[in-house]
Each structure stands twice: as C-alpha cells, then as structure tokens.
Amino acid sequence: MRRIVQVALPLPLFRTFSYAVPLDLQDKVFPGSTVEVDFHGQILTGWVVEEGGEELPGLKEIREVLPFPPFPSTLLGFSRRLSLLYLSPLGEVLASFFPPLGKSARKYLGFRVFAGENVQECCKRFGVLPPRGMNLFLFLERFRVSTKDLERFLKDGILRLEREFLKIGDSPRTPGECFFWEIPRLEERKAFLRDILVKAWEEGKKALLLLPDLQKVDAFCAFLREHFPSMSLIRYDSRLRPKERVVAFWRILEGDFDAVVGTRLSAFVFPCQGLGLSVLFDPEEKGYVADRAPHYDIGEVMEERAHHFGECLHIVCALPSLRVYFRWREGKVKPGGVIPSSGTRNVQGVVARGLWRNFALFPPVRRAIVSVVERKGIVLIWVQKTGYATALGCRECGFYYTCPSCGIALRYHKDLALLVCPLCHFRLIPESTCPSCGGIQWGEWGQGVERVFEEVQRTFPGVPSERVDPEIEEEGWMGKVAAPSILVGTSALLREDLLPRVSLFVVHSLDEWLSLPEIGAWEQLYIRLQKVLRLLPPDAQVLVQGSRESLRRFPEFLKPWSLFYADALEKRRSLRYPPFVRLVRFVVRSRNKEAVFRVLSHAKELFEARGIQVLGPFPSVRPRRERAKSAELVARYPEEDVAEAFDVCVEIFPLSGMQWSFEFVLS
Question: CATH for 347-385+447-558, among 3.40.50.12780, 3.40.630.30, 3.40.50.300, 3.30.460.80?
Fold first, then answer.
C-alpha cells in the first residue's frame, strides 16, 4: 500500500489534496517538505502538512522534492492561525514564506560547498568559509562564480561539494512579549533603535525591522550602515528580484545576518532560531495594508508571529493607534516606557465669513502667512483631497460626472485635464458641453490640493511654493525645502524630517475631514493631528479653518489618547464593530446575477445556523468590473468564532464560474 500525504497548494481552495509518495522519495517527504506536484495538468509548488489519506483510483504521485528546508511545526501553526483569522486557504498563506525558484536555484540549492584540500588557495580567493560550509547557490551569488569556474575549482581541489542537509530545529518557544513606545521624533527613534539593537546583539538575538514605505526602509538602512558598518544587513521588500529574494531567504535561513529591514513583506520572513527581536514602526500607516484581499492587519500578524515564534515585539509610533490602545486595555500589549503627554498647544480656529467661503485661504490665515514669510519661515497647508475639485458638473441642469463602476463623483484634476475616480482610478476626459442638457456653464465643487496651491501662487507670487501629493511624491519629491517657502499638500507632507522646521501649520478644511463617512476617519484625523502637534517646534503657530459647527468639535482632537480612544471604543462596542468583532465582506462576482444571490443566500443560512450575524445579500457597492454582476454579504463575529466562519467558507467556496473574495474591515 502506497504512503499518502496531504499537500496544501497556493490556490483559492479551502482544502488539502492527497498525493502518493513514490518509492525513491520515501526518505525525503514528510510533514514540512516543499514539493512539486501535478494539479490538473499544471505543475505547482505545494507543502506537505500531514500524513495520511485515502488511496483513490488515479491518485497522482509527488513529482519532486524542492530544495527548501522543511518548515517547522511552529510555522505551520502560525499559518493555520492566519488562515482562520483571514479566511485564507492554508496553501496561500504558506506561499507567502517561500520565494519562487528559478532554474539555477533549483540546480544549486541542494548542495553545500566547503574548502577543498587546497585550503590556502580557497582562503585566498574566498576568505575563510564557515566550518559548516555554505549553501552552493548562496556561494555562487555572493562571489559571482560562473559554472565553468566552479568546475575548475572542484577539479583543482580548491572547493568540494556535499549534499545539503535540510533540517530545521524546532524547539518549543516561550511566546514573546509585545510592547509599544511613543516616540514621535526621528532622531529619538534612531537613538531608540540603536540602543535596542545593541542590547539584542549582546543577548545573541537577531532583529527584524518593519517600516511602512520604501523611502523609510532606505533611510533606516543608511542609518544602520553608518552607525554599524560591520553589521550584516538584509533589505527585504518588493524591489527584490526573484533571484535576490532567494538569496535573502537563504541568508535568513542560515542566520547570515544581524538585522532584516523591510516593508510589510518582511512580516512573512521565514523564522530562524536566532531571530528574537521585532520592531514595527507606525502600524497605522496605509503602507502596511496589502493591495489585494484579505488585507492583512500587519500589527495583528506581528503579534501572532511573536506568540508563535517567541520574538519580542516592539511597536514604535508617534502615539498608539486605536487597536494598540484596545490591546493595551486587554493586557496583550504593554507600554515600553514613560508615556509622554498628548500634543497640546495654542491652536486657533478660523471661521469663514461672507464671500470668503469661496476662497481656499481666509483673511487671518493670509495675514499669518505674510508674517511667517517675512520672518523667513516655512508654511505648511494641509489639504484633505487630491485633485483640483471634488466634482465637476453643469450649473444649468445639475449634472455631474460619476464613476460608472463605483457610483461616486469623479474628482477633477486640472493639471491633467482629466476626471479620476478616487477609488478605482477610472479616468475620463470631460466634454466641452454638458452631456445631459448641452449647457456650457461648468462648475467645480469642493477644493482639492491643486486649487489651494493655485490660490497660494496667485496670492503670494514672489514666495517659493511647492505642491506635494501622492502624484508628486511618486515623481521623486525628496522633501528638500528652503525657507521661506509655502508647502501645500496632502498627508504626504506630514513627515518627521519636515514638521520640526515648520513655523505655521494650517488645516485647510476641518469640515472635509469630519464629513468623511468611514467610521475610522476621526481616529485617523486624531492620529495625524497629534503627530503634527508633537513634531512641530514649540513656537509654531497652528490655524484650523472650518465652519463654526466643526470648530466646536475640534477640542475633542486635543484630548489625551486614553480619553479620545475610550469614547471611540464605546461607540464601536455599541455598533459591534472592530476591534470587538471581525467584520468581513464576502464579495461574489458573476455574469449570472441570480446565481450570485442564490449562492450568497445559502451562505447566509449557513452563517446564521452557526450564530453568526449576517447582513445581505445585496448588490456590491464597489463592483470591480463594469459588466460583472456583483453582490456581497457582510458578516460579523467574535474572534472565538473564526473556526465556524472558516467552516462555512470550506463548504461554500470556491464556486465554479464565479469570482469571490473576502475583504476585512480592519478599523
């Protein structure tokens, strides 16, 4: 009787698959092995997760064992946990830890290289190789040795090869502790990082550092190389080419590093025995949210990682997010040091009067700008929306352009002469006459960063000015600012290296922020404002433009975070909203609208039978394709019911001829 194993594949399928182990691979295949299998004529990489299975007619055999180390049981437990939390197939979670292999990696990863009989020549060419040798693929990439040269070195006795011994120790680990630190200023963060790394290295631990964007990754890598020139540093982010990612993976595996620095991709770094410290910077930043479902909450992923792998997690932020505060109240996260006071200063509100409501900058703000410019200072005007106007429409009939997929107003970008959807980025060139009534009286509603910047240039023509928004930042704005100057931009301007130099900070429109429909919009505004107030110099002036009603609410954003978040959590508790429950949208798309609603109605019955509250099904608010028929369910359930929700997914999905996804609301 053949030996059967269960293999998890990187497919949107909530099950494992049975494969037979051929005789020549009996001693190489066991739980934890990475294998290559035939799945309906397609060659896929999979992972053996357990022994056993039923011998069925036509059962296929494993084709090959790939030269990856067997993953430890802790990694399997961690992957199963993420699979439950985010309703993700186990194979897709496991695939996050392993880089794809090219031909050269497949050929050479299975060998280790050692010094040959001619040790002196080996040391002369390559230095002293480790006593345990070096993986051959890693050796060839590090020393840029060609295949022909390798054959010559082996023939001359300079090097010798042995089969790679793929074994990973998996001793029990004590769950790591989690701390949060309030450190808003860049120089203080660097000092904190320097001290904590030195302490970790003295204890024999290696470090994993996560940052929200590539620019900060580069900045911190430069800082570490400057202060620790002899350290072994690995940069691990989306810029790595496939071969470079394999090299980084194997260096981490062999412990050939002191610190790994990267973006959200680093949260899925393969665990190694010496990795004992993790530092997560600013977990509330959007750079940590994946572009595709299930949109992992990296803060939660790193906490689970600390629990399963025994890594001590330090969360560094200007001030804690709502989730960190909630975890602190639960006793899951501890404050790492003295908690500084909230950012308070003399903040002045400015109310629009009369015709000035149609202008971007009110008279008191203009006078303050003139005063700062005369003192050779820097002015920063913070605008909520990109583009020139929130909407473009006809003044004669009231028509305005909307996105055909999302149903919201298209944002007018005057620089590009385009209408752009802020959600799906659909683009449209506006017509010269109204498509509804033929009118020619066009009007813009709302003020974006382009319009505010246009008014700044018109009002202060002799003063250097700069517009900064996501589009400009992508073109390479590096934050080089000379005083005096006026900066107009979105949240891309709120940088740790810029705010300490600002003399006047202006919130362009408080009403724009308070009118956002998302339940987490106020928490995001609070975090950004408090970050600004803590980073601005003590003598900086802060002006907030808005209506009387919005300015009456503004003192709430000056409260200490413990009071502000307590009110926000109470609201979320009453609405049964995260972080008290898990909230997920089940979106199904198909050309057969009736079939979509029939499937989701069946899913609703299964959820409700398990005591899970469900809203819907109803038409999806954000269909991705204009011609597709799309519908969704919204389910909410406490964390202890994640297994019940997963069981429904196993029973319902996948669906033949339908596209489906799970989109989690994280805050």
Answer: 3.40.50.300
pLDDT in tens, 36-86: 999 999 999 999 999 988 888 889 999 999 988 888 888 999 999 999 999
Annotated domain spans of the chain: 4-72, 111-163, 178-335, 347-385+447-558, 582-665
Please say whether the structural domain 582-665 has been given the CATH code 3.40.50.300. no
Give the full edge-to-edge strand order of the sheet including 582-590.
Answer: 613-619, 629-637, 582-590, 659-665
Q: 291: exposed, middle or buried (C-beta count within 10 Å: 0-12, 13-18, 19+)?
A: exposed
Tell how strand 378-382 and strand 485-489 pair up. parallel
Tokens of 353: 């009067």
Q: How far is CA 498 from CA 374, 450, 460, 478, in A?
A: 20, 21, 22, 11
Gyration radius (Cα) of the chain, Å = 29
Nearest partner of 630 among 659, 667, 666, 664, judged by Cα: 659
pLDDT in tens, 252-298: 988 889 999 999 989 999 888 788 999 999 998 888 887 676 678 89
User: Could you confirm whether domain 178-335 is CATH 3.90.226.10?
Assistant: no
Could you give the strand order of the β-sheet that contains 159-163, starting from the edge strand earlier in sequence?
134-135, 111-115, 159-163
Separation CA 87–CA 254 (nearest Å): 32
Contacts (Cβ under 8 Å, ≥6 apart) of 31:
5, 48, 49, 50, 51, 70, 73, 76
pLDDT < 50: residue spans in the chain: 474-476, 623-627
Taking the model in full, what pTM does it have?
0.88
Phi/psi class of residue 255: alpha, beta or left (left: φ > 0; alpha: ψ in -120 to 50)?
A: left
- The answer for residues whose C-beta is within 8 angstroms of residue 415's C-beta and 6 or more apart is 388, 450
Domain 178-335 matches domain 347-385+447-558 at the CATH topology level: yes
Q: Which amino acid is at 240?
A: L
